[in-house]
Amino acid sequence: MDEKDILKQAKARVKKKKGFYGHLSSFIAVGFFFLALNLASFFNGDKELWFFYPMLPWSIGLLIHYFFIFGLPGSRALSEKWEEEELAKEMARLRRMRQGRLEAPAPQEEGLDLKDLEREKEMPKQTRPNWEDEDLV
C-alpha cells in the first residue's frame, strides 16, 4: 500500500468521524431545544415531560452511527481491523474460486516464520523492527 492509498483511507476515516461528531452536536443542540421548550410549557401549566419522546429514536440512530464508525466497545465486531481481515479473507476466497479450486483457507499462524526473521535480520538497522541481533534464538 503506497502513501496515496494510506492518505486516501485516512481522509475517508476522518470524514466519517467528522460526520459522526456533526450528528452528535446536532443531537445535543436539538435535545437542549426540546428540553427548554418542554420546560417552558411545563411551567405554563402542561405537566407532562415529553422532550425525550422525539429524542429516543434519534438516540438509537446516533448509537448505531457510533457503532459503524468506532465499532462495538470491547469487541472486534464492526471495527476497522475486523473489516480489513474479513475483506482479506473474502478476496482470498474469490481468488481461489477464480482459479477453480474452492477449498477451506489454510489456518494462519501468528508471528513470523524463520525465513521472515532471516530476511528482517539482513535489513539495515534503521528499517527493521525494534529488536537486537542477540534477541534472536
Residue share in helix: 55-70%
Question: What class, by secondary structure content?
Answer: mainly alpha
The total strand number stands at 0
Terminal CA distance reads 31 Å
Gyration radius (Cα, Å) is 26 Å
What is the count of DSSP helices, taking H or I runs of 4+ residues? 4
Q: What's the SSE pattern?
A: HHHH
Structure, described:
With 137 residues, this protein is mainly α. Among the domains are: 3-70; 76-101. It is built from 4 helices and no strands. Helix 1 (3-43) packs antiparallel against helix 2. The protein is elongated and about 80 Å long. The two termini are 31 Å apart. The model has no long low-confidence stretch (mean pLDDT 80).
Briefly characterize the structure.
Among the domains are: 3-70; 76-101. The relative contact order is 0.05.
Protein traits:
137 residues; mainly alpha; 4 helices; elongated
Topology:
Blueprint: H1 3-43, H2 52-70, H3 80-98, H4 114-121
Helix pairs in contact: 1-2
